[in-house]
Amino acid sequence: MHLEELTDRVEAVSATYARKYAIERDASWLLLKLHEEVGELTQAFLTKTGQARDRGRTPEQVESDFRDELADVFCQTLLLARHHGVDLEQVVADKWLVWQTPA
């Protein structure tokens, strides 16, 4: 699946969520939601690395929480980029991949 197709699918899920909870997904909400998800990822990371209490979660649940929060951050980033008309594939190529050394 290409990033644009994935973003289309994430957008559809997010739009359904917004309708269900009467949320206006404007630029501020998208950034704040990303910030919320980064906080949840931080908590999951701290738990995974033994720097926070596990709250009775099994190691498997802790690992699952970490993976889920990574997905949430990634998807919210896709949504924020789309909202602002940012082609993430191009930006990554311009910003990161220019430093790639040939194999």
Automatic annotation (TrEMBL):
<protein>
    <submittedName>
        <fullName>Pyrophosphatase</fullName>
    </submittedName>
</protein>
<dbReference type="Pfam" id="PF03819">
    <property type="entry name" value="MazG"/>
</dbReference>
<feature type="domain" description="NTP pyrophosphohydrolase MazG-like">
    <location>
        <begin position="30"/>
        <end position="93"/>
    </location>
</feature>
<dbReference type="InterPro" id="IPR004518">
    <property type="entry name" value="MazG-like_dom"/>
</dbReference>
